[in-house]
Amino acid sequence: MSNSFNPYVGLRPFRDDENLLFFGRDEQTLELLQRLHANRFVAVVGSSGSGKSSLIRAGLIPALKGGFLVENSSQWLIAIMKPGQNPMYNLAATIIQQINPKIEIAEIQKFVKRIKKEGVSAILDFIEPLRKTKNSNFFLLVDQFEELFRFSLKQKDPSYKNEAIDFVNIILKLSEQKRIPFYVVLTMRSDFIGDCAQFFGLPEALNRSQYLVPRLNRLELKKVIEGPAKLYGGKFNTALTSQLINDLGEVKDELPLVQHALMRMWEYENETDKSGELDLHDYKQIGGIENALSMHADEALKELKIDELPLAKALFQALTTIDENGRKIRRPAKMSDLLELTNANEEKLLGVINNFIKKNRSFLIIDSIADSDDKLIDISHESLIRHWKTLNIWVDEESEAALQYMRLCDAYVAHKENRKDLLSGREFEIAQEWFEKFKPTKTWAARYNDNFDEGMKYLSDSARVYNVKKRNAKNVKRIKKITLYTVIAFAFIGLFYYFALPSEDEKAWKVANSEYTIESYTAYLDSYPRGIYALTAKDSLDSMKYLKSLELAWIDAKSQDNVKGYENYLNLAAIEKDSTNKILEYSKMAKDTLTALKKIDSLKLKGNNSKLDEAAWIKATAENSVTSYLEYIRNEKITGDYDMLAFVKLHEIGKTGFLYCGKIQGTKIIEPVFDLVYRNESGFKNDDILRANDIVRALKTRYIYSDLSVTRKSGHTLKINETYLIKSVVLQANAVFVEIIYDP
């Protein structure tokens, strides 16, 4: 087998010069030619991963160039575009660049203005000379037409909607006019057909000529699988072909997944196995149809440096979203926006992006943006979102953070309209926990809602009121305590008075009580540390000192100027923070100083702990079990630089199952099945309500079930004192069900 070239294209679509590698679609190509002959406008519709773009690029376009549509001319001007961020500019550019590839941006902008002013005649006037001199036909492919809906609906300015309408009118009129033979084909995902109704004339055009891409039959799939390999001298094991075809029936995105798996098998066979044929061993090594894509993406992730892993996570979270129908979809982003969002420099961000493009990965694509110097970064195919397990975890985390933010903004709007009070109780605590854990920025929030500043002020106002209420509750508790002590003290006073109290003690107490100052009570206690009124004096002194405690603590922290001093202040200010502007200023200064001091301490410790961390990671990967990775994450003696990879490994090798783990009463689980032993934050208790990514210890023996209905047993049970990872938590009424990851 020759290893100089890989005949499988992977996730990306076929190009028009790869027709030789494009097998199994001859009948579909012929059907498309017939539709174009009858109607110069054809909408090619299909599900994600059905091969729409490849069918046009590597099937239909080569057939057009071969003279199969127009008998008297095989000369074609082929223009291929996507609506993208600027559909009118992209249309103008793709047409004009077919004639003059070196055209200046200023000329394209002039052409755009002509099209907007004169309509379709501007395009016909421009290309008519080419028709007369070269007898050329004209073909326009609008690929991923559904991008136009995102362009028109996601913008606040109504001019975007108007431009989208103009764009649709122009491509329809180009196909309808008789002056020049102009053929238009668009590709679109079938789940966006309903969105076409917002454009006049488009549903009617789709009704006249729509081609729904069919699924390939077993014979066609056999050609797709074996054809490219045999073309380049490769041998294909028949058992592998059967296995691939059978497995494809159980997954979505069958064509990009099979192309990717075949590309990976070709690489493995030629670079590692070298047995002389593609076989089941190669298939198993690359992870099969279901896991090949996830394993390949994780390989790219592992090549990054440790400090690049958070950047990769932020990048992919920015490029994905969950739509209103619960679908995980692509979300293209400008390079400038990504730089602002990640706070990274362009060289470093491009390095991470290119790591997911090189070596035939093709997970990301970089496109130019109309007349801008900016770049558009996008995920090459949504199959990556559906099948890369690590990315699914990231998308869920991003979705949860966005959901919490949107709830906060909704609460702010309701408060502004006098339909809701400030946040309080558990609702406030959840919002505050989200804010402290996620640390949202205005740039991040702008992708979901423009009320960031107002929402943060609403949360801050809620915090101020919440803290005052909490402080008042503490004061009430203290007053009750003081009252109790006072009653007891007066009882003792009555007894001692009955037995004739010493006059000096009583006189000193009267002086102290009449002056009612810190100094007077201190003087009394110095003179009579065990006096009859000593207990009452101490409580009164504590109450008076309480009012100045924060300011004294701040002065003390500044004088010490060390971590301990500022931590003492923050502990005292935890309840009292933000009660006045001055204290708010102290809190900010103390937090900033503490952050700097802890950073210094962290840097000093990192050098000493790096060797321990490396050794712990090597031990965990050598055992390669759920238990070993959980022990690594829980190890408090190391820096935990590989925590993220440990979580990835847990999701890779662990088996998942469901079980009932107790009922909620208040904020606790009654009769729990698990003890909480690790959470990536301080201050948790072992009976707290569980969350995703918590590590727990089994207290009881329970069956593990295969699904959430807990009716089908998995064949495994919990082992007492064994540790498990919580993958997800589902609340049904007051019952808690969890999905766990455990050693298979």
The CATH superfamily of the domain at 25-212 is known as P-loop containing nucleotide triphosphate hydrolases
Q: Any idea what the radius of gyration is?
A: 35 Å
Q: Stretches where pLDDT falls below 50 for ≥5 residues?
A: 496-501, 575-586
Strand content: 5-15%
Oligomer: single chain
User: How do the strands line up in the largest sheet?
Assistant: 12-11-18-17-14-13
- The CATH architecture of the domain at 25-212 can be named as 3-Layer(aba) Sandwich
Kindly state the number of beta strands. 18
Mean pLDDT over the residues: 83
Task: Furnish the topology, listing elements before pairings.
Elements: H1 26-38, E1 41-46, H2 52-65, E2 76-81, H3 87-99, H4 105-118, H5 120-134, E3 137-142, H6 147-153, H7 158-176, E4 182-189, H8 202-208, E5 210-212, H9 218-231, H10 238-248, H11 254-273, H12 280-285, H13 288-302, H14 309-318, E6 320-322, E7 328-330, E8 333-334, H15 335-342, H16 346-355, E9 364-368, E10 375-379, H17 383-387, H18 389-416, H19 425-438, H20 442-445, H21 452-498, H22 503-515, H23 518-527, H24 534-560, H25 563-576, H26 581-623, H27 626-634, H28 643-653, E11 655-665, E12 668-670, E13 674-678, E14 695-698, E15 703-705, E16 713-717, E17 723-732, E18 735-742
Helix pairs in contact: 1-2, 3-4, 4-5, 6-7, 9-10, 11-13, 18-21, 19-21, 21-24, 22-23, 23-24, 24-25, 25-26, 26-27, 27-28
